[in-house]
Design goal:
Organism: Streptomyces thermogriseus
Protein name: ANTAR domain-containing protein
Largest sheet: none
Order of helices and strands: HHH
Radius of gyration: 17 Å
Structural class: mainly alpha
Number of domains: 1
Strand content: under 5%
């Protein structure tokens, strides 16, 4: 049996890592909820409001 060796990469895709973290946060919130998450709850988990305020300078 031949096992291919993978080299560790020093370069990381920070956008992809951030997306993975947000997906994980959303999965955790959904699994802890008793019912479906509302759109407002999803926005809160994904920090949509914070991003909008940061983008507008408020």
């Amino acid at each position: 049996m031949h096992v291919a060796l993978m080299r560790a990469r020093a370069v990381q895709d920070h956008v992809a890592l951030a997306e993975i973290e947000l997906c994980g946060d959303l999965i955790i919130a959904a699994s802890a909820a008793e019912e479906r998450l509302s759109l407002e709850s999803i926005d809160k988990v994904l920090r949509v409001t914070e991003e909008r305020e940061a983008g507008t300078g408020r």
